[in-house]
């Protein structure tokens, strides 16, 4: 067979240089990091008192093992690292290591910022890590719900509503039956219910999926808010005092220093979230279910001509996703404070959506995104609690700013599943 | 969930198919009207008909994608009902769709196993087994392909091979090939015909759907001709092309275009070192030089997807270039990189007519009336509009004239354009673009999906524009159309013009150029570059 007619994908890097000329994505990012690094070195460096030390402890409190760093020197030094990486990218030396360079630059910038912030104070790394994971759990489960739906071709903007409904049902039924386990199941079913409504309207009645998701979020807010005001709040002893899941220490593993307290001393919901990431990853890539899910999300007509029931696959995935997001909601009540509050999901569903896009529709990527946003959240609450010079209103923005920067700046051009959001109608 | 590997309800390796009195209606339209068709084991049966004759509908009925209103499907003398493609697959029928049913981000093996996955506990995929299945079939029928390659990275000819393997792995004994040659280079077509012969030798039956007479004569054992949903006759491959065409169209047609030799004048379009990126940011047009003179037709030949769309869009000011220049009558359309010097409106106003490749998407507003579509480019100025208002009477009168002149079959000028047949929609586009004096006509795939009668008409109009002194840039993936119309032929391959040749150049040479083989490269083994044969 002679050289076939169609253009074949060629080397992406060479192509992008050819098309975009000098200012490739790597160079643009390099320039941004370089400027950010200069800013960090100068501003954070100057703002830091010269004689103070920044103490990073490997514990939950200030005592115990830790590292003391001369704050100003390191605020400047980390800024310089950021500058160097930025310069390297700008010079075109790191163009094949975009991800790693970005990770180093962003980490250095954050560390420079921290040296300034905690000069004269301390930062408990283990405590921060614990908090990060704890805050990430609803995001992990929420974005898994998104992964399941969107890989099969249904956009799920209703994650927020699923989390809220899950949180509400968990608290309500947990209180009524005085059992956290009943609460967990009820939470899953609550999220699943929203998922089922989404599925029917999107798949059967072809409603625009983004609009539908937004409407379902408002619906969930309205219903839970009304029931909370009318019944739950007046009778909070009967309806809003669910038992909560305690910390479940895994024997031996929990005693490993540093890692143990972070990973092996959590509630059942946290373990569930991590296990689900592993299961969904394997299932998507290694099983018949996963192959069919991906086929339906990429090319439903092809799947149909092979006898795969496209709508059935989508129904199943969206509803399972709803169940998972409902469990994520439970993490907010019975996996946490043990009380439902009005609109307590507070935009976490949308951050989960951002984590999904940040993670390029893969479960592990979504996990990474969820942890990143969880970290921003944990950091803001710690800095607020130690009376940072930055006004708390700005600190509260941190997770959202991180979301915008991550999704708009770092992700670059991502490719959603081809049939994402497109209802399948047999011709 | 049904998830067993396909369990065959029959065995044997050959299959006899009869369709008896198949009728399928869509509303008032009778797409298939009591169609009878018999395909013997080991037979290549061509189903010949124009676009819209009902061939694809019939095959979708056979493949379980559509429910027939009447009639029955008989496989090996047993009447069968196919509620879904799975039933058809289980009965031993495989289909290669015109638009491939392959998931581009999957590997070959994944595409082949999809829907018939072999699994161990928990639905765990047995990928080794899938690769072995692919290897076994490609070995048996000499269909070489790498099971681990992503489909998106494969050229179209090989993708088609994957589709055939998909059917064979499912133990299909009858293969439906729906317009399989539409997207192939001449060499790839030859390869496909070879594959079809070897399948036939193995006892497989093939239904070969096409409107191309040459291929039918080359490969078919028997020919059934369909017109407007009915079987209008059967023919032997020994029938002449003219006889087949007459049967297909219902009257005598001229397959060649009458034209005088060209009398080229001054250059009207000059493309100089033009480079254009496609939607993904890849360089789709790579430093092309072209000149079109007044009074000549420059044909651009090439398999689709080699940069023709991007070239045309850049010329029309619809897509920014990344380098090079375009000049129209000596004035720059595109001067420097990324800079569109003239808007599309200005390009049109300077006497350029544009027939886009995708009329449904770029050529017409389907919900607008025929009359409105006929003035889409000129409603702003006299006589059709003034200031903020339109002149409906002028629009109507002009529409009636054009409908007459261009033989547009529509109930009235107020009929929505989207309800017309493909050929008549195309005539609306052509009529609009040719209703003002042109210095350049850019026509991309001007007769795609258009019936033979309308094709004749459109071809004649294109030649008439040329004889009126306009330059014509004709882009087509139908080599016959290019050979019939063009005065010079530029062959595009992967964004470059490999050569500009005369229209009496042998077909084979142009075919090789379309596949990227130039005289310099033909000898040095680069033909084996893709290593598929």
TrEMBL record, chain A:
<protein>
    <submittedName>
        <fullName>ABC transporter permease</fullName>
    </submittedName>
</protein>
<dbReference type="GO" id="GO:0005886">
    <property type="term" value="C:plasma membrane"/>
</dbReference>
<keyword id="KW-1133">Transmembrane helix</keyword>
<keyword id="KW-0812">Transmembrane</keyword>
<feature type="transmembrane region" description="Helical">
    <location>
        <begin position="71"/>
        <end position="91"/>
    </location>
</feature>
<keyword id="KW-0472">Membrane</keyword>
<dbReference type="Pfam" id="PF02653">
    <property type="entry name" value="BPD_transp_2"/>
</dbReference>
<feature type="transmembrane region" description="Helical">
    <location>
        <begin position="394"/>
        <end position="412"/>
    </location>
</feature>
<keyword id="KW-1003">Cell membrane</keyword>
<feature type="transmembrane region" description="Helical">
    <location>
        <begin position="98"/>
        <end position="119"/>
    </location>
</feature>
<feature type="transmembrane region" description="Helical">
    <location>
        <begin position="131"/>
        <end position="149"/>
    </location>
</feature>
<feature type="transmembrane region" description="Helical">
    <location>
        <begin position="350"/>
        <end position="373"/>
    </location>
</feature>
<feature type="transmembrane region" description="Helical">
    <location>
        <begin position="210"/>
        <end position="228"/>
    </location>
</feature>
<feature type="transmembrane region" description="Helical">
    <location>
        <begin position="318"/>
        <end position="338"/>
    </location>
</feature>
<feature type="transmembrane region" description="Helical">
    <location>
        <begin position="184"/>
        <end position="203"/>
    </location>
</feature>
<feature type="transmembrane region" description="Helical">
    <location>
        <begin position="161"/>
        <end position="178"/>
    </location>
</feature>
<feature type="transmembrane region" description="Helical">
    <location>
        <begin position="262"/>
        <end position="284"/>
    </location>
</feature>
<dbReference type="InterPro" id="IPR001851">
    <property type="entry name" value="ABC_transp_permease"/>
</dbReference>
<feature type="transmembrane region" description="Helical">
    <location>
        <begin position="31"/>
        <end position="51"/>
    </location>
</feature>
<dbReference type="GO" id="GO:0022857">
    <property type="term" value="F:transmembrane transporter activity"/>
</dbReference>
From TrEMBL, chain B:
<keyword id="KW-1003">Cell membrane</keyword>
<dbReference type="GO" id="GO:0016887">
    <property type="term" value="F:ATP hydrolysis activity"/>
</dbReference>
<feature type="domain" description="ABC transporter">
    <location>
        <begin position="269"/>
        <end position="519"/>
    </location>
</feature>
<dbReference type="Pfam" id="PF00005">
    <property type="entry name" value="ABC_tran"/>
</dbReference>
<keyword id="KW-0677">Repeat</keyword>
<feature type="domain" description="ABC transporter">
    <location>
        <begin position="17"/>
        <end position="253"/>
    </location>
</feature>
<keyword id="KW-0472">Membrane</keyword>
<dbReference type="GO" id="GO:0005524">
    <property type="term" value="F:ATP binding"/>
</dbReference>
<dbReference type="InterPro" id="IPR003593">
    <property type="entry name" value="AAA+_ATPase"/>
</dbReference>
<keyword id="KW-1278">Translocase</keyword>
<dbReference type="InterPro" id="IPR050107">
    <property type="entry name" value="ABC_carbohydrate_import_ATPase"/>
</dbReference>
<keyword id="KW-0547">Nucleotide-binding</keyword>
<dbReference type="InterPro" id="IPR003439">
    <property type="entry name" value="ABC_transporter-like_ATP-bd"/>
</dbReference>
<dbReference type="GO" id="GO:0005886">
    <property type="term" value="C:plasma membrane"/>
</dbReference>
<dbReference type="InterPro" id="IPR027417">
    <property type="entry name" value="P-loop_NTPase"/>
</dbReference>
<protein>
    <submittedName>
        <fullName>ABC transporter</fullName>
    </submittedName>
</protein>
<keyword id="KW-0067">ATP-binding</keyword>
<keyword id="KW-0813">Transport</keyword>
<dbReference type="InterPro" id="IPR017871">
    <property type="entry name" value="ABC_transporter-like_CS"/>
</dbReference>
């Amino acid at each position: 067979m002679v050289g076939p007619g169609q253009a074949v994908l060629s080397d992406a890097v060479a192509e992008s240089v050819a098309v975009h000329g000098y200012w490739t994505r790597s160079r643009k990012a390099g320039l941004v990091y370089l400027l950010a690094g200069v800013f960090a070195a100068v501003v954070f460096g100057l703002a830091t008192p010269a004689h103070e030390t920044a103490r990073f402890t490997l514990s939950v409190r200030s005592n115990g093992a830790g590292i003391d760093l001369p704050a100003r020197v390191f605020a400047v030094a980390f800024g310089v690292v950021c500058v160097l990486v930025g310069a390297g990218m700008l010079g075109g030396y790191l163009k094949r290591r975009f991800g790693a360079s970005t990770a180093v630059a962003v980490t250095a910038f954050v560390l420079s910022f921290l040296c300034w912030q905690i000069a004269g104070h301390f930062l408990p790394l283990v405590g921060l890590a614990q908090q990060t994971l704890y805050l990430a759990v609803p995001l992990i489960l929420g974005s898994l719900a998104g992964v399941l739906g969107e890989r099969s071709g249904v956009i799920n903007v209703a994650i927020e509503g699923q989390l809220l409904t899950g949180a509400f049902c968990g608290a309500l039924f947990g209180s009524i039956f005085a059992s956290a386990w009943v609460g967990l199941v009820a939470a899953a079913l609550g999220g699943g219910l929203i998922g089922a409504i989404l599925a029917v309207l999107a798949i059967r009645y072809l409603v625009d999926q983004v609009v539908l998701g937004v409407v379902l979020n408002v619906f969930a807010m309205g219903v839970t808010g009304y029931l909370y005001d009318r019944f739950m709040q007046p009778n909070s002893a009967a309806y809003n005092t669910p038992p909560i899941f305690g910390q479940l220490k895994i024997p031996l593993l929990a005693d490993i220093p540093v890692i143990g307290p972070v990973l092996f001393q959590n509630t059942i919901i946290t373990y569930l979230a991590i296990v689900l990431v592993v299961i969904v990853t394997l299932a998507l890539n290694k099983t018949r279910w996963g192959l069919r899910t991906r086929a339906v999300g990429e090319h439903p007509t092809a799947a149909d001509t092979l006898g795969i029931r496209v709508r059935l696959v989508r129904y199943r995935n969206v509803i399972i996703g709803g169940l998972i997001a409902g469990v994520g909601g439970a993490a907010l009540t019975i996996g946490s404070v043990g009380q439902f509050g009005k609109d307590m999901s507070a935009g976490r569903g949308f951050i989960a959506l951002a984590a999904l896009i940040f993670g390029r529709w893969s479960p592990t990527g979504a996990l990474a995104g969820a942890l990143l946003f969880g970290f921003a959240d944990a950091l803001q609450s710690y800095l607020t609690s130690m009376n940072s010079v930055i006004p708390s209103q700005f600190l509260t923005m941190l997770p959202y700013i991180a979301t915008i920067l991550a999704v708009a700046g770092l992700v670059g051009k991502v490719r959603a599943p081809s049939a994402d959001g497109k209802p399948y109608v047999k011709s | 969930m049904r998830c067993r590997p396909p369990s065959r309800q029959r065995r044997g390796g050959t299959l006899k198919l009869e369709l008896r009195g198949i009728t399928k209606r869509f509303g008032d339209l009778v797409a298939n009207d009591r169609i009878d068709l018999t395909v013997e084991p080991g037979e290549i049966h061509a189903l010949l008909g124009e676009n819209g004759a009902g061939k694809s509908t019939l095959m979708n009925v056979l493949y379980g994608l559509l429910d027939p209103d009447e009639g029955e499907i008989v496989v090996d003398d047993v009447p069968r009902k196919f509620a879904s493609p799975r039933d058809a697959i289980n009965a031993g029928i495989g289909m290669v769709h015109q638009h491939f049913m392959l998931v581009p981000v999957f590997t070959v093996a994944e595409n082949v196993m999809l829907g018939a996955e072999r699994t161990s506990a928990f639905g765990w995929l047995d990928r080794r087994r899938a690769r072995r299945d692919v290897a076994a079939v490609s070995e048996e029928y000499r269909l070489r392909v790498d099971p681990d390659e992503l489909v998106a990275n494969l050229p179209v000819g090989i993708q088609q091979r994957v589709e055939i393997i998909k059917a064979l792995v499912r133990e299909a004994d009858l293969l439906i090939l729906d317009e399989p040659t539409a997207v192939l280079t001449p060499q790839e077509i030859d390869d496909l015909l070879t594959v079809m012969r070897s399948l036939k030798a193995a006892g497989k039956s093939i239904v070969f759907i096409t409107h191309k007479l040459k291929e039918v004569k080359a490969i078919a054992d028997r020919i059934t001709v369909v017109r407007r949903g009915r079987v209008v006759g059967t023919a032997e491959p020994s029938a002449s092309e003219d006889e087949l065409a007459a049967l297909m169209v219902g009257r005598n047609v001229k397959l060649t275009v009458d034209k005088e030799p060209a009398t080229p004048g001054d250059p009207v379009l000059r493309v100089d070192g033009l480079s254009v990126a496609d939607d993904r940011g890849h360089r789709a047009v790579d430093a092309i030089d072209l000149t079109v003179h007044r009074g000549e037709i420059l044909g651009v030949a090439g398999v689709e997807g080699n940069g023709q769309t991007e070239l045309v869009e850049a010329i029309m000011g619809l897509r920014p270039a990344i380098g090079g220049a375009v000049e129209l009558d000596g004035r720059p359309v595109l001067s420097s990189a990324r800079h569109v010097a003239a808007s599309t409106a200005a390009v049109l106003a300077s006497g350029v007519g544009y027939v886009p490749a995708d009329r449904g998407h770029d050529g017409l507003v389907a919900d607008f009336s025929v009359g409105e579509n006929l003035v889409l480019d000129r409603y702003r100025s006299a006589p059709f509009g003034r200031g903020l208002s339109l002149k409906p009477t002028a629009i109507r009168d002009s529409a009636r004239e054009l409908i007459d002149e261009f033989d547009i079959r529509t109930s009235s000028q107020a009929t929505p354009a989207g309800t017309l047949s493909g050929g008549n929609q195309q005539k609306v586009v052509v009529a609009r673009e040719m209703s003002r004096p042109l210095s350049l006509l850019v026509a991309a795939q001007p007769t795609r999906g258009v019936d033979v009668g309308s094709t004749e008409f459109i071809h004649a109009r294109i030649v008439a524009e040329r004889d009126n002194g306009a330059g014509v840039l004709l882009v087509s993936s139908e080599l016959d159309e290019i050979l019939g119309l063009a005065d010079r032929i530029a062959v595009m391959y992967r964004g470059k013009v490999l050569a500009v040749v005369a229209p009496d150049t042998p077909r084979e040479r142009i075919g090789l150029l379309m596949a990227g083989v130039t005289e310099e490269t033909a000898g040095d083994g680069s033909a084996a570059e893709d290593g598929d044969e």
